[in-house]
Fold each of these.
Amino acid sequence: MGEIKSSVKKKKKLSEPKDFKVILLNDDYTTMDFVVYVLKSVFHKSENEARRIMLYIHKKGQSVVGQYPLDIARTKEEQVHNLARENEFPLICVLEEA
Ligand code: TYC
């Protein structure tokens, strides 16, 4: 009697791709209005939410402003830095593994 072979293949466990937090940092030169503009245009925050987050960063030094898969997080980071450069502000954001 031949052995019955299972046709069901074992599923290789692929770990879920990690998300990355996008963190906006405070500085002394970027205007509050510009940070609010970035939070609205890049991170789709409402006016009230953008102002609340901006003031939190201003007081505490930094804040997570979103969490995304790596490619999207990198794109957001680049958009922030491009907008900041175009407008001659030193605004910085960094990514951190979630
Ligand atoms: N500290 C800035 C000021 O007083 C405002 C600011 C807030 C800058 C948040 C950057 O991520 C930031 N003009």
Amino acid sequence: MTPEEFRRRGKDVIDWIADYWERVEGLPVRAQVEPGWIRAHLPERAPESGEPFEAILRDLDEVILPGITHWQHPGFHAYFNSGGSAPSVLAELVTAGLGVQGMLWITSPAATELEMVVLDWLAHLLALPAHFRSDGSGGGVIQDSASSSTLVAIIAARERALGGDGNTRGLAHGPRLLAYSSTQAHSSIEKGLRAAGLGSEGLRSIPVDDAYALDPTALRAAIAADTARGDVPTIVVANVGTTSSTAIDPVGRIGEICAEFGVWLHVDAALAGTAAILPEMQWLHDGLEYADSYVMNPHKWMLTNMDCSALWVREKADMQRAFSITPEYLRTASSESGSVIDYRDWQLPLGRRFRALKLWFILRSFGAEGVRAIIREHLRLTGLFADLVEAHPEFDVVAPHPVNLVCFRHVGGDAVNRHIMETVNESGEAFFTHTVLEGKLTLRLAIGAERTEERHVRRVWDLIVAAADAR
Ligand code: PLP
């Protein structure tokens, strides 16, 4: 493709995306295909000769689009949302155009330094403690996912607990390392423990209270008992916004326990952290002064397309101890001078994408006030939906809704709730999912898509009531 052809085709593709966004509301939210449909419509082998671009775009419409679940649809209320704002998509295009691989400062100084700057901006906007800013001993880094961010934190905590021995000698000869999180913690924590060698059995699942928040008394008792036995409590993962119900753990009280026993505190605010851009929601970050690391995902609720997970750590040195290996071919004068960050030392892979551009484009295009207005409106709509549920005699809100998720149930039991969910989801107008709370199937409705307006929230509620009435 010549630059001239690229210019032309690029405009076609931008038009395609803009048209898609304009018509997405009219498409069924969930993909309507049976398993295997897409494969059956694709050739078994790659083409030997290049095809016309029109043919590719035609198949995008005819073969790929039917297999897409529309996360940017205003009726998308499932799981947690995934961003995709226009400035973010344009930045992604520039990232691809530059084709930078930013493993070392020298491999593109702007990639590293912009990442430091935008994460300092974000730390300021989210009222994170000063120890996470890059002008001190800590700093932020962009990972591909909260799962990776948490794995990085676990490995860094492991190496701090073992003085670097885990990396050199492995875990076989050391003490038993243990991790703690609530019964409501995301599965990425157990997965991270498996990958880091602590194993699923290294996770102590701490009970929760009526609001699904970790019980600090039970946490302290567990850590004290394990310490007395000679095991090494290594990391506590506190949740600010659990996946099931957006429960908020008491981070300050958990932090005091971590400080008492010298345990790494990691805070998982993958979804809810975004809300702290609002001054009135910054209580979400109470207690973060104790945290050694903290993760939130701009790619969930902060208008950013996959992938972009922001991780901050208290000590840069913990990252280097855990992740730095320098073969000759990666040695550079700038790295040796100690005056730059090489982000390869803050993650598992060597190579890395230039993701900071997305945050830079978003924060500059919307401005902090623009982002706040969207998040504030989502919170208002969440409150509105919860009020609609509460006002209905046959439905109950069954968990606190501090951010943008409402957990609710029809009084008729699991089968009725499942029927309601499937009926609404089959309508194509909206899509939401479920969890289990108190052993009961619970409907969960998230409000975090950029295009969701009050009329969409009222419509999904009408569909829910109609499904309940028609059974
Ligand atoms: N932590 C929480 C609280 C989550 O809700 C999720 C995903 O929804 C994750 C971690 C994992 O996020 P990711 O897909 O970025 O790994």
Amino acid sequence: MNKQITAPFSLETPPADKSILVLSGKGGVGKSTVAANLAISLSLKGYATGLLDTDFHGPSIPKLLGMEGTRLTSSDGEKLNPAECGSLKVISVDFMLGSRTDPVIWRGPMKMNVIKQLFEDVNWGELDYMIVDCPPGTGDEPLSVAQLIPEPAGAVIVTTPQEMSLSDVRRSIQFCRALKLPVLGVIENMSGFVCPHCGERTELFGSGGGEEMASEMGVPFLGRIPIEPEIVSSGDSGKPFVNHNGDSQFARDFESIVTAIANGVRSCI
Ligand code: ADP
């Protein structure tokens, strides 16, 4: 971690050990990117933060954080030590897999045992925040994760502005309601593109749908994140965007989202 966020950032003392589930109605909308950057932002601000990647079919957190190939160790022979990215504690199902090219064909109960272990049998220590990158969708896997995480503070739902993605958000909100899981809010990712040369904004996939959806469903809207080509290269090179591009528009937009999430967590407890 070599660059601190420079924009003003103020959070009051966080509640102890609060889990935030990061959900999306489908894959590819930037859920893991948001989870990784949220966890990094909180840890850069000095909060004891854990990041738990429970996405069996596409565990991308290790790649986003440059931690591929990490294998977990145990200092007492009983509990696993989380891997570390600066002061952020990280556990991914990918750290348990033999080869990155192996398809994961574990049956449901086995997967759930693994997730339970990743939460319970790990030396997480005292945490202020635990960010959980959930499997996409509203099926059995995110359902089991949401049920296995003890007392989650709430969920953040990531979407893109397209109609198809927005109807998935409706389902995600209903999913949270069925589980009595507070919705901390909706983030509209890939919302517009600002030309780096002329500064003109183009709404490639439309814009504002996430906010309308949030208001229609009566949940908070946390903010928009533009399409930022460097997010792809920083993800591919394992350099989390917020701590390498602290003065970018993305980092500024993201910072107000982090503050809104933290405020939402406090009001939910
Ligand atoms: P998910 O977890 O929803 O499957 P990812 O976080 O893995 O999605 O993101 C999917 C792809 O989109 C990645 O290549 C990522 O770098 C890229 N991406 C995510 N958010 C943005 C953004 N705001 N601008 C540009 N690319 C993005």
Amino acid sequence: MTGSGISAESGVPTFRDAQTGLWANYRAEELATPQAFTDNPRLVWDWYCWRRELIHRAQPNAGHRALVTLAELKPELALITQNVDGLHQRAGNSNVVEFHGNIERDKCFACNRIPTGTPDTTERPPECETCGGLLRPDVVWFGEAIPTAALETAFRATDSCEVFLSVGTSALVYPAAGLAEAAASQGATIVEINTNSTPLTSVADYVLQGSAAYWLPAIAASVQTLTTH
Ligand code: BV8
Ligand code: ZN
């Protein structure tokens, strides 16, 4: 399970980093909600456009790449991410469970259709070609349900895993944070990789304090050694 901490070294601010510039006086939790979009669609749309720009300029880092190696060594690896930045796929992981959706996809706020092409309009936000509703990013906002397929796949993998890696997440947002708890309750070994401590730290069997870009390559190298000898 990865959180925004794995993308921090790619220059994508974590969800709880203080926002910069124009967005300095807004909190992400206040903007990532249906209410904020209803109240001020242009403000929320512009915030996502700003984040998309940041993500387009970002590159996957050694942490993302190490998970590609790990998936090659251990095809049974289930990669679940809370991130919406698509960096795991850009690094080369193919089946990624996107627990909170993907910022690159638009969705109609009214009819939920995913538009086919890129809307060629300067309207902010653009309108749905089918029903005229407003488009929004296809991410899960606070108060919205996790997509059923992602929820089921994630909890199925969690219920049967031997080792659960919690990487770069503050373990505060549910139901995502419930995955590590579910893994622990079925006896999995819990490993936390984080620069800081979190509510999971006291539960984890192993706490690897430090960056994902340091610890994940180290883990991949060890698994490589164990697998090829
Ligand atoms: C829902 C997409 C109900 C949008 C996001 C109990 C049960 C269920 C729900 C709740 C509950 N209690 C409260 C709730 C409501 C809420 C919730 O959990 N609130 C929290 C704040 C208490 N949950 C919800 O609303 C969820 N929906 O429950 O719906 C429902 C059910 C049925 C029908 C209808 C409704 C939906 C939550 C999803 C919200 N969307 N993102 C977008 O991106 O714009 S969540 C957002 O925060 C991020 O996507 C991320 O996934 C999440 C957590 O952030 P992190 O990834 O952990 O990032 P953060 O900044 O917090 O931490 C970074 C960590 O990395 C830090 O620990 C840091 O130390 C570390 N770090 C930094 N650098 C590094 C590093 N680690 C390693 N290396 C580094 N270099
Ligand atoms: Zn529509």
